[in-house]
Specification:
With about 625 residues, the protein is α/β, with parallel strands linked by helices. It is about 25% helix and about 20% strand. The chain has three domains: about 90 residues, Immunoglobulins (Immunoglobulin-like, Sandwich); about 375 residues, TIM Barrel; about 80 residues, Golgi alpha-mannosidase II (Immunoglobulin-like, Sandwich), CATH 2.60.40.
Length: about 625
């Protein structure tokens, strides 16, 4: 009898424990910290008919339960807390009571994370990589049968290839050798998406832009633990880490969308309505409300539902996740996807919250605007008369990307050829901080740079030289340092191929000098020389920028300079060899007769310098 009673008590205890575990199925944020700048925290609780319970908080010094929100869906409860400055770390105990029983749910408040983001500045050099296509460090996490997309096949350009965060960690020394100072990974957050039909082909979400659980890094990349390890190891080597953030949309398979708190969690339409992709609609003082709404509230793709950032609960969910991510993983900077499609009032609020907590972070967006002025409209700028004033510090400089291609491919003319680049930089007066713009030559959404310029190595080197020496924060895309080529034909997958050597079955290893061919080593060494020099040059990392009007059918000269350091860049984009007219540059040369060639390390006489067609010099001027 005694054994029977004991067994019954054990069963009852297990049943009670299971009931407690199953009542609250999700909590977001998954934890928080004491000592944060803002005392406010809103916790999303999700579970079966949670709204049928009364929610209270067991007394905890410094924490006040301000309000409990019950919404359209009875499976959600939102709790507003105030966490006062004197609050100590520990576990909160929430009680859910339905009048018959009371179930306790704990919530952890951690000690404040002492790590302060390093930020990214003009002194940095960013390397962008796609984790699934970079290196496979742990084949055991390549695929999972219980995920919506259980496939992995390197022979298919549209499926997952097995690259992961351990693969990145294994090659951190490659970045430091090259001269990289910051890593930007395409999103690593869980994309538990089914394959989607795009142009008649089933494609996976290997790119990472369809989140399905904000608080978990994708298992196929190694999960939260692998991301933490990668970041810790990167920091040990002096490498910063940039998080790729997406606010505008989520994946169609996001857990919240399977049972939404309310219909207004998304921007809803009677029938599927796609964004127009035309940013003038939200900048045009004469625009219709209809055109503005299509641009900002239309969905990016049918499988990427558009979040309603005007909804207070959605806004808090996204803002808190951003702060949580920085605190949990020790992120240094923040890249914001599809920036100009977001609600600008929300973005200003979100940016302000991040910068209040982490004032040294750099936030930069992606706004593929059609003009320089339109691009400037989506950052801190000097433009009057806009319908909104953005507080975003920086953006990807898409207009630089376009102008460099034109400068290298067009013949010199009044406004063509290298004058395209010159005139672009003239318009820096539109920006509060043009030096913070992130410049680039290619990325995961664009044709490979070498292919765009006709696989011309001279043009390639000139373009990289401009990238590394003109104002801004330079960024390259994985493989560009080796001259990887291709067009987006028939799809983006053609510019997202695996880094050769990242998989144990690869016959060559491009991470090693011995695995690269002669041309690849030539280009790698050129990039390395520029990058390593840039790290030590105050002129290139801190200096002012002065350019001279292009002349003589394509000669373009500019200077980067401080009180103690000066670099002169001379480019001949024309078709004939030319001498350097040093009288034009007297205000910067100030009588200097010689300079050191940064690439060859040789000293050259400026008045005897000749520059061949499609050739250039990076010259360190003695002060």
């Amino acid at each position: 009898m005694k054994k029977l009673i004991t067994s019954l008590l054990l069963v009852m205890a297990l049943s009670a424990a299971n009931a407690q575990q199953s009542l609250v199925k999700r909590m977001n944020p998954t934890n928080w910290w004491v000592g944060m700048k803002s005392p406010e925290l809103q916790i999303l609780f999700y579970g079966d008919k949670l709204a049928g319970h009364t929610l209270t908080l067991k007394a905890y010094k410094g924490v006040v339960l301000k309000k409990v929100h019950k919404v359209e869906n009875p499976n959600y409860v939102f709790a507003d807390l105030e966490i006062k400055p004197e609050t100590k770390a520990g576990k909160l105990e929430f009680q859910f009571s339905d009048g018959r029983k009371q179930i306790t749910q704990t919530y952890e408040l951690l000690p404040k994370n002492p790590y302060r983001p390093k930020g990214v500045s003009p002194a940095d050099f960013i390397y962008l990589l796609m984790p699934d296509r970079f290196a496979n460090g742990d084949p055991s996490n390549d695929k999972f049968a219980d995920m919506a997309d259980p496939l992995m096949d390197r022979t298919s350009p549209w499926l997952r290839h097995g690259g992961d965060l351990q693969g990145v960690t294994n090659h951190l020394d490659y970045f430091t050798d090259l001269g990289v100072t910051a890593l930007w990974l395409n999103p690593v957050i869980e994309n538990d998406q089914p394959t989607t039909d795009e142009g008649g082909t089933q494609r996976s979400a290997y790119h990472g832009y369809g989140f399905t659980d904000h608080y978990n890094v994708d298992r196929r990349f190694g999960g939260n633990a692998a991301y933490k390890t990668m970041i810790d190891e990167a920091h040990k080597r002096g490498l910063k880490v940039i998080q790729d953030a997406v606010y505008n949309h989520v994946g169609i398979n996001h857990w919240i969308l399977k049972d939404m708190p309310f219909k207004a969690w998304l921007n809803q339409w009677d029938t599927f309505t796609q964004t127009s992709f035309k940013e003038p609609a939200v900048l045009d003082p004469h625009a219709s409300a209809y055109d503005r709404r299509i641009m900002s509230d239309g969905w990016f793709m049918p499988f990427l539902p558009d979040l309603n950032q005007k909804n207070e609960f959605v806004a808090k969910f996204l803002i808190q996740h951003a702060i949580w991510t920085v605190a949990y993983f020790n992120i240094d900077a923040w890249r914001i996807d599809t920036y100009m499609y977001n609600d600008m009032a929300f973005m200003n609020r979100c940016n302000a919250a991040l910068l209040s907590e982490y004032p040294d972070m750099l936030l930069f967006g992606e706004s593929l605007a059609t003009t320089v002025a339109n691009q400037a409209a989506f950052v801190r700028n000097n433009i009057n008369g806009l319908p909104f004033a953005c507080n975003l510090p920086s953006t990807l400089d898409n207009q630089f990307f376009v102008a460099v291609k034109d400068a290298l491919n067009q013949k010199y003319g009044w406004s063509d050829g290298v004058n395209r680049l010159y005139n672009l930089l003239v318009q820096d007066y539109l920006y509060k901080r043009p030096d913070l713009l992130v410049t680039y030559l290619d990325n995961h959404d664009e044709h490979r740079f070498l292919s765009v310029i006709g696989e011309d190595i001279d043009k390639y080197k000139m373009g990289l030289t401009w990238l590394m020496t003109i104002r801004g924060i330079p960024q390259i895309y994985y493989g560009t340092e080796l001259g990887v080529k291709n067009f987006k034909d028939p799809t983006d997958a053609e510019v997202r191929k695996d880094f050769v050597g990242g998989w144990k079955e690869d016959k060559e290893n491009k991470f090693l000098k011995t695995g690269r061919n002669q041309r690849e080593n030539e280009l790698y060494d050129f990039m390395k020389t520029l990058a390593q020099y840039r790290k030590t040059s105050p002129a290139l990392t801190q200096g002012k920028f002065m350019q001279f009007m292009p002349y003589d059918d394509g000669m373009y000269v500019y200077f980067r300079y401080t009180d103690t350091s000066k670099v002169m860049v001379v480019s001949n984009t024309g078709e004939k060899e030319k001498g350097l007219d040093i009288k034009r540059f007297a205000e910067q040369l100030k009588g200097a007769a010689t300079a050191v060639d940064v690439i060859t390390k040789e000293r050259v006489a400026l008045d005897k310098l000749t520059v061949g067609p499609k050739k250039f010099f990076v010259l360190e001027i003695a002060r």
